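User: Show me an example of a complex going from sequences to structure tokens.

Assistant: Sure. Here are the input components:
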Amino acid sequence: METDIRFTHRSIVEQCKAGNSSSQYELYSRYVDAMYNVGLRFLGNTEDAEDIVQDSFVEAFKNLDHFKYESSFGAWLKRIVINKSINHLKTKRISVVPMEAHEFHLADEEPVEAEAVDILKVKKGIAQLPDGYREIINLYLIEGYDHVEIGEILGISTSTSKSQYHRAKKKLLEIINEL
Amino acid sequence: MDNFERHIRHNAGQFDGHKADKDKMWAKISEGLRQEKPKVIPLWKRPLFRVAASVLLLLGIASFFGLAVFNNSADKTQYASKELMEIDMYYKDLVSYQVQLVKNNQALSEENKAEFLSFMDELDTEYEVLKKEMQKNLDNEQVLEAIVGNYKKRIELIENLLHQLNESKKPNGDDYGYTL
């Protein structure tokens, strides 16, 4: 099954590699909404999200030769969008909640267990989270990365990712409970 | 993973509710793709180019080693042919032999020797110029003739000198003080 996912749209991807612009448009059409939503989740406004997604598609098409089907094209592209979004946020702001500051007392903090919550409430809750927390919640819960991957994306250790995530999740549950 | 997390991950699609302004964004993307020619790199990925690159590389290596091996004999190979090389060798030996004769000749004054050798030096510089010309233009027969002419002039000069020296010796030994 996994192999099948990696080779999704392979023929279109190969045509794009050969420089076929109609295939590029086809591939773009299939992924643009998903990528736009990813960008929007991280950046919080349509303008930045559009810019980042555009840049990501340009970069992806230019570097398509480096794409060797180690993941699906969508996963590869999403990683470009996320990396660009996070870099954009880094240059734009000084982190409100510096991640490193929480590292020590979080290590022995108990992970919070919680029951399923209405998705609409989750959306509202995430929107109210501080930027740093929102990033890690998005990466883990919605984009579906594990802590090793999140560590790579954010340039932090796996354990920092875990502890940071648990703190963010706790905060999210607090917000949701108050809604 | 608890129920809260599982529920969100299973319904992650519900977070993708926004629609992108597809055409507007594509216009920017295709503009971005036009700015730089992205198809330069793929060319090298084609088999034909790989073959061509391999051939070039082989030629490069071959010429590099070729140069390294033959570099020692570069002074010799700069001549147009083996024939010319032999002529050059012949005259060079002859000239240096005769120059040596003049230098060792007791009958000549230091002044005469210096004058003679300065002529030789002039011809030497001329010869160096011709040799450089030869490297630039290997098939130039005029240059070839000029080189041979240069040698002949030296020999003529030496022969004249030696001849006059011998002539002057015969009647009496006092008469050899004139210049060339």
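The lines above are the inputs; the final block is the predicted structure for all two components together. The interface with chain B takes residues 17-19, 21, 24-25, 28-29, 32-37, 40-41, 50, 53-55, 57-58, 61-62, 65, 113-117, 119, 122-123, 140-144, 169, 173 of chain A (CB under 8 Å).
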